Amino acid sequence: MARNHRNGAKVTQITAENRVKLDNLAVVLHKPRLAENIGAAARAACNMGLSRLVVVQPEDLDEERMLKMATGPSAELIRSLEVYDDVAEALGHFHYIVGTTARLGGPYRQSPLHPRELARELVAISQHNTVALLFGPENWGLTNEELALCHALVTIPTAGFRSLNLAQAVLVMAYEVFLAREETPPRFVPRLANSFELEAMYAELQETLVKINYIGHQNPGLWMMRLRRFFSRHGLRASEVQVVRGICRQIDWYVRRRLEDRGQ
After folding, report:
1. Exposed e or buried b for every residue in 159-195, given b needs 16+ CB within 10 A?
2. CATH for 195-261?
3. 3-class SS of residue 207
4. 104, 149, 235, 260 - which has most CB atoms within 10 Å?
5. Is the dihedral of CA 144, 147, 153, 158 positive or negative?
6. Helices (DSSP H) in 57-188: which residue ranges?
7. Taking the complete model, does pTM exceed 0.85, yes or no?
8. CATH fourth-level superfamily of 16-179
9. What are residue 72's phi and psi, to 5 degrees?
């Protein structure tokens, strides 16, 4: 850390290691309803240095209407737009997923981060991992099932009326990410398992835990949320995901062998 020789004030040295790596971040819009909102979101993202925009199950992809809002350099985000039919597939290659929500409470919407707090976390995570900022439909937001795919949740504080325009929400999040700085080098976060790898592990783990009656057959997803939060707090590498899946397969083999020995 440098000091200003005139007044002794600390001056943060901005390096690649203590700022968010913007090239590794993408804005993901799930079921956006209006082409104009996609265009406005593209402009907001571009304003803050984000260059990747993904849409999932959009209702309207009228390019002319999108480009009315995405003017200047932001038009490139529309021309390179990535479109998916399934949210799990769209998120599959990302290593860290942040879900935005205005509604709080319940087992799926606990401990949301403040945008500024999240941005500080992304300083370290984004160095070696791709990150998705996930936004839900304009009228109801992300469902519990969609939030279950996320490693972290974030809520934008407001004075009272909690509902933000989609582009406004994108701008606030992108702004905080753009400004994210730390006075000291961030902690090291290794390359994490991507969402495809994690979801395959969670499916196998859930099946195994139901089979040995550790969790109930009714609403096992609710039980799994605790495990998802646990693993998300620590972050798993691909090799560690394979260890968990290997344990599941060994448990499955042992259970089947015991049943065979009993003649069941």
Report:
1. eeeeebebbebbbbbbbbbbebebeeebeebeebbbb
2. 1.10.8.590
3. helix
4. 149
5. negative
6. 63-69, 75-79, 87-91, 115-125, 144-147, 166-179
7. yes
8. SPOUT methyltransferase, trefoil knot domain (3.40.1280.10)
9. 60, -140
